[in-house]
From TrEMBL:
<dbReference type="GO" id="GO:0042597">
    <property type="term" value="C:periplasmic space"/>
</dbReference>
<dbReference type="GO" id="GO:0044780">
    <property type="term" value="P:bacterial-type flagellum assembly"/>
</dbReference>
<comment type="similarity">
    <text>Belongs to the FlgA family.</text>
</comment>
<keyword id="KW-0282">Flagellum</keyword>
<comment type="function">
    <text>Involved in the assembly process of the P-ring formation. It may associate with FlgF on the rod constituting a structure essential for the P-ring assembly or may act as a modulator protein for the P-ring assembly.</text>
</comment>
<keyword id="KW-0574">Periplasm</keyword>
<dbReference type="InterPro" id="IPR039246">
    <property type="entry name" value="Flagellar_FlgA"/>
</dbReference>
<keyword id="KW-0966">Cell projection</keyword>
<dbReference type="Pfam" id="PF13144">
    <property type="entry name" value="ChapFlgA"/>
</dbReference>
<feature type="domain" description="Flagella basal body P-ring formation protein FlgA SAF">
    <location>
        <begin position="105"/>
        <end position="224"/>
    </location>
</feature>
<protein>
    <recommendedName>
        <fullName>Flagella basal body P-ring formation protein FlgA</fullName>
    </recommendedName>
</protein>
<dbReference type="InterPro" id="IPR017585">
    <property type="entry name" value="SAF_FlgA"/>
</dbReference>
<keyword id="KW-0969">Cilium</keyword>
<keyword id="KW-1005">Bacterial flagellum biogenesis</keyword>
Length: 230
């Protein structure tokens, strides 16, 4: 067991949240490096997850630290093979670790056709080793609900972000409303969309006078003007 005797502050940052995580001195004295790394990664994953950490190169790490902390680190995916920077007595070490996470993820309950809008009747939640699943596997309902499948999905396929897109707000050939505004004025006009677009994407629009403009899709059948193209 590594003896860690000083009060320390661990700062955790993930895609979901950022928070300060404080360990008191009694905890540091009575827990191993593996325990500390495990608790760190428990904070980076979902509350319902089970986390195990294996440290591959702890042999050269000191047995005693008067001052120890894990450096703030951003992990886009907080599982699998990772590097964990830590400091012991002001010296920096890079621990090579493997993080195993068991938790929930979503799979197709049935075959899903291309361009289908995903609904709860089409998917089911399973539990397993997340680090063995495809990168970008979706773990929360809000990430897929109402999204559109980019291609046909077989039954029991883990759902990933690359399989889905947002539904189109505007479709090529559709007559849409285009608006622009400034100080004390707003102008609305109609035109024909020349490409598909979802929220925040650019759409080219041929106006009724033949002029082409570039706008940003904002609502169903509506866009906001960015610029005029001669």
């Amino acid at each position: 067991m590594i003896k860690l005797v000083s009060f320390c502050l661990l700062v955790l940052t993930t895609d979901i949240y950022a928070q300060e995580y404080v360990l008191n001195s009694d905890y540091l004295k009575n827990n191993s490096l593996k325990d500390l790394a495990t608790e760190y990664f428990e904070q980076l994953n979902l509350a319902q997850d089970s986390v195990k950490v294996h440290i591959n190169n702890s042999q050269g790490f000191p047995n005693h630290c008067d001052r120890f902390f894990i450096e703030r680190t951003f992990y886009k995916i907080p599982w699998g093979k990772l590097t964990l920077p830590v400091r012991c007595n002001e010296k920096k070490y890079y621990l090579q670790i493997e993080v195993q996470v068991t938790g929930g993820y979503w799979v197709t309950k049935q075959k899903v056709a291309k361009n289908s809008v995903l609904k709860i009747t089409m998917l089911t939640k399973k539990r397993g080793l997340i680090n063995r699943l495809p990168s970008g596997v979706i773990r929360q309902k809000s990430a897929w609900d109402g999204q559109v499948s980019l291609y046909s999905l077989p039954q029991d396929s883990p759902i990933t972000h690359t399989m889905l897109r947002k539904p189109w707000l505007i479709q090529a050939g559709q007559t849409i409303t285009v608006s622009t505004s400034g100080q004390q004025f707003q102008i609305n006009a109609t035109g024909q969309a020349l490409n598909n677009a979802t929220t925040g994407q650019s759409v080219r629009v041929r106006m009724n006078n033949g002029r082409i403009i570039t706008a940003i899709a904002s609502h169903q059948g509506m866009a906001t003007i960015l610029s005029l193209l001669d």
